[in-house]
Amino acid sequence: MSNILIAGGTGFIGIHLSRLLRDTGHEVRHVSRRANRQAEFPAYGWDINSMTIERDAIANADVVINLAGAGIADKRWTKNRKQTIIDSRVKTTSLLAKAIQEGVTRPKLYINSSAVGYYGNQGDKVCQENDPPGEGFLSESCLAWEQSVAPIQQIGIPTAIVRTGIVLHPQGGALQKMLLPLKFWNSTYFGSGQQWYSWIHMQDICRIYAYLIEHQLSGTFNAVAPNPAQNKTLAKTLPRAAGKRALVTPAPAFALRLVFGEMADTILDSTRCSAEKIQAAEFNFQFPELEEALRDLLR
């Protein structure tokens, strides 16, 4: 089994991924702003501002995974916040690249997270991995993140980029926020509700990372379920999967723009992504259908 180093290992996806990898026999450790060898997963210290990392962090790592980055929808997109989002992604990747280049041993595989925001607002178009980036800040930040992987690729290390969709889990992310109105018998869709959401069950996104490691796959992959859903469909399916009655109501686009500004792109953009490439690599989704996935998560 592999020795795996994860940056961003205590985050929304990271902690679930860490536990899955550990439970399947891998040795997992983290890099964190605070070193703590007694943590659930031993943590090695790093500082992206001073571009320093503990020497032992990279040593003997068979696989390095980078999930680190400031939350895309945690705060309103001011000029400073946008720079923080990009820096938190580009600098972490650059620091890992520096550590790998300077290390005595080098990993057999490097995996970097990205997001389907790379494609931007594409309406009904089905987006595939070889499509160009879209327009807007989401695309800009994803493109910068993916381009920062180049130094690792250039030294000959096999590299995978995982363009992640909307990860569904009731304890965080979009689903946690969508469950709040259900307490008041309401389920909300945004704008017209016709925009496509490329979603994925938390278990399947973690299984994709494990699959890439197991099969030593490189390249760019959309990490999305094979059946994306329109936002209004999601709003209708959620109460049914939760076994609750709810009035499905719209939140007008102009109101969302007023409240969130440009950050409203995260819920109003339509990004309909194909899962064909990861499926062609013989990965099988446990939760390909939305209602089935929601029922599993909310049971």
Task: Write up what this structure looks like.
With 299 residues, the chain is of the alpha/beta class. 38% of the residues lie in helices and 21% in strands. The chain is built from twelve helices and 16 strands. The chain has helices at residues 14-23, 55-58, 79-102, 137-147, 150-154, 173-179, 202-215, 231-242, 253-260, 265-268, 276-280, 290-298, and strands at residues 3-7, 27-32, 43-47, 52-53, 63-66, 109-115, 126-127, 159-164, 166-168, 186-190, 196-197, 199-201, 219-223, 229-230, 247-251, 272-273. The strands form five sheets. Strands 4-3-2-1-5-6-8-13 form an eight-stranded mixed β-sheet, sandwiched between helices. β5 (63-66), α3 and β6 (109-115) form a beta-alpha-beta unit. α1 crosses α7, α3 runs parallel beside α4 and α8 crosses α12 (290-298). It is globular and about 60 Å long.
Question: Keyphrases for this structure?
Answer:
single chain; 299 residues; alpha/beta; 8-stranded mixed sheet; two-stranded parallel sheet; 16 strands; 21% strand
Write the layout of secondary structure elements.
Blueprint: E1 3-7, H1 14-23, E2 27-32, E3 43-47, E4 52-53, H2 55-58, E5 63-66, H3 79-102, E6 109-115, E7 126-127, H4 137-147, H5 150-154, E8 159-164, E9 166-168, H6 173-179, E10 186-190, E11 196-197, E12 199-201, H7 202-215, E13 219-223, E14 229-230, H8 231-242, E15 247-251, H9 253-260, H10 265-268, E16 272-273, H11 276-280, H12 290-298
Helix pairs in contact: 1-7, 3-4, 8-12
